[in-house]
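Why do we bother with holo predictions? Because pocket geometry can differ from the apo form. Keep that in mind while you read this record for adenosine-5'-triphosphate.
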Amino acid sequence: MSEFILATRALKKAFGAHKVLDGVDISVPRGEVVGLLGPNGSGKSTMLNAISGFLKPDAGEVLLSGQPVTGLESHAIARKGLIRTFQLPSMPHRMTVRDVLTAGSRTGANLGSIFKRAQQESEIEDLLVTFKLDHVANQPASSLSGGQKKLLSIATALRAQPQVLCLDEPTAGVHPKLRNDIVDILTSINARGVTMVIVEHDMGFVRNLCKRCLVLDRGSIIADCPPEKLSEDSRVVEAYLGKAIERGGVRP
Ligand SMILES: Nc1ncnc2c1ncn2[C@@H]1O[C@H](COP(=O)(O)OP(=O)(O)OP(=O)(O)O)[C@@H](O)[C@H]1O
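The structure, written out:
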């Protein structure tokens, strides 16, 4: 079994002449929580898209447990255990919150027994409570606030029982009180062995969750270190932390 559950090798993606990913190598050991940081427009979402099959890389490799998944469709990569959430999750108009969670199941279409159905219903009720969505369970998912949609998208991702969860700005738009709840939820998910790659600008959140951070800038990883070491790295301060703090861009 590969030492790394997720790796990219010389991953490239350009939009026209703009080389957003210019040969990116990352290696994520099983069970790790990694922060993927960088200035706005540095390619973090592009990286998640290329890893999860929402975008085909121009060159390079994506490896899941050592096996190449480069260029596979997103649903095929999801079936292999890597699920990605989005910065701005869109929700179907006609489905309630509970319906969205039910549809998110890996086994949703194949509930052969009453036992399985009862088990699924109980898992969904647990998720509704854990993500503080139980009071809106019967409302249309599209009517939720931005923060609630974020929570629902993470809860739905968990229904697929991922081995690797890639989260794109999980706290953006989420009420500050709920951010600590998300840290607790993600910590307990990680304790069950789920590896995570988290794109996030909230440095408090990153420090609470991530043992390691990768910083992306101008197409390359410019730092790979624990969060508390980031401010000691002059390239990171120059490219990201310094400027972003000046602009108020990094949520402390
Ligand atoms: N489909 C696309 N077509 C053309 N350019 C794109 C496309 N997707 C992304 N880009 C460009 O690639 C660059 C990286 O975008 P990306 O969204 O990956 O950055 P990011 O680091 O996630 O930014 P942010 O922190 O603001 O969310 C940006 O300049 C963006 O305009």
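Residues 89 and 136 are 17 Å apart (CA to CA).
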